Amino acid sequence: MHEYSIVQSLVDSVAAAVPSGAIVQRIEVRIGEVAGVDCALLATAYEVFRAGTLCERAPMTIERIPARWECPRCGGAIAPGAFLRCTSCNEPAHLAAGDEIVLQRIELEVA
Question: Pick from 61, 62, 70, 63: which is nearest to 92 by CA?
Fold first, then answer.
């Protein structure tokens, strides 16, 4: 289960971004549909891992990003569930979105 290593990286990224003395109130992450992350397991891993960290009191919101495929030549969108080849150019589709794992937002309380 690699969700724990993802949570470790998220908490490390938050720690690197937060100024000294600030209190983390909430974090938001964006997880792509084809990123290979189980969002329920990620949420559970976060609940377990955040104890004793600067994210201890910060709930995590997960936004799921759908996969989006497009033609690398003409930029045409490939419909979800369609054959992954452009109907105009006959080029193989390119994954334009949906494989990302992004720490989108950190909400802080600063003294």
Answer: 70
Report d(CA 29, CA 21) in Å as an integer: 23
Residue 85 CA, distance from chain mean position: 26
Chain centroid offset of residue 4 CA: 14
Three-class SS state of 63:
strand
Which positions ≥6 away from 26 have C-beta within 8 Å? Answer: 58, 59, 60, 61, 105, 106, 107
Tell me how far apart the alpha carbons of residues 82 and 94 are, in angstroms, rounded to a whole number: 13
d(CA 80, CA 68): 7
CATH number of 3-66+97-109: 3.30.2320.50
Question: What confidence tens digit (pLDDT) does each residue in 46-99 have?
Answer: 999 999 999 999 999 999 999 999 999 999 999 988 899 999 999 999 999 999
The residue type found at 52 is G
